[in-house]
């Protein structure tokens, strides 16, 4: 939700069905990325388009996540106040407006969509993985939990 606040300018309720679906798609894609079909798709996309496999679901999930992001961007375009940017999307939209006459500008809706998605996925992925590893370490080394005023040490010196 911290990443959502920065990128989307809003937090989602933890019971929000759209938000939970988004998290499910991302989690499923994290699992699907390790499948052999997905890895083959990365090398032979044209051939793999004709073959069944988990890579098809990964692509469907990416489209759903992209649709989610694009919907938020479209809502931001409708409610944009250039004098008061709420988040990354508003700042990007303001820059798009400044670059309007520049034919070589990289500030486009497509770039905004991809960048927003990259920031969201990178932020949620790294944070959740870090927290998971921290919990695993705490589980493996229970003696470091609840040491009172002592310094937490993972390794004995």
TrEMBL record:
Record-level Gene Ontology MF annotations: arachidonate epoxygenase activity; heme binding; iron ion binding; oxidoreductase activity, acting on paired donors, with incorporation or reduction of molecular oxygen, reduced flavin or flavoprotein as one donor, and incorporation of one atom of oxygen
Major location category of this protein: endoplasmic reticulum
Annotated compartments: Endoplasmic reticulum membrane; Microsome membrane
GO CC, one annotated term: endoplasmic reticulum membrane
Protein EC: 1.14.14.1
Membrane topology: Peripheral membrane protein
UniProt KW RNA-binding keyword: no
One of the Pfam families matching this protein, by short name: p450
Keywords: Endoplasmic reticulum, Iron, Membrane, Metal-binding, Microsome, Monooxygenase, Oxidoreductase
Gene Ontology annotations of biological process type: epoxygenase P450 pathway; xenobiotic metabolic process
Family: Belongs to the cytochrome P450 family.
Name this polypeptide is given: unspecific monooxygenase
Phylogenetic classification of the source organism: Eukaryota, Metazoa, Chordata, Craniata, Vertebrata
Gene label: Cyp2h1_1
């Amino acid at each position: 939700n911290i990443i959502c606040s920065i990128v989307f300018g809003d937090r989602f309720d933890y019971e929000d069905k759209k938000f939970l679906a988004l998290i499910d798609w991302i989690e499923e894609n994290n699992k699907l990325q390790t499948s052999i079909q997905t890895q083959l798709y990365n090398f032979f996309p044209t051939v793999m388009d004709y073959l069944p496999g988990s890579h098809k679901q990964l692509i469907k999930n990416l489209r759903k996540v992209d649709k989610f992001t694009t919907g938020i961007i479209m809502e931001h375009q409708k409610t944009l106040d250039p004098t008061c940017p709420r988040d990354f999307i508003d700042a990007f939209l303001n820059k798009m407006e400044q670059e309007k006459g520049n034919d070589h500008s990289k500030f486009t809706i497509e770039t905004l969509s991809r960048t927003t998605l990259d920031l969201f996925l990178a932020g949620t992925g790294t944070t959740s993985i870090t927290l998971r590893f921290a919990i695993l370490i705490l589980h493996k080394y229970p003696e470091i939990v609840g040491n009172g005023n002592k310094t937490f040490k993972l390794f004995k010196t």
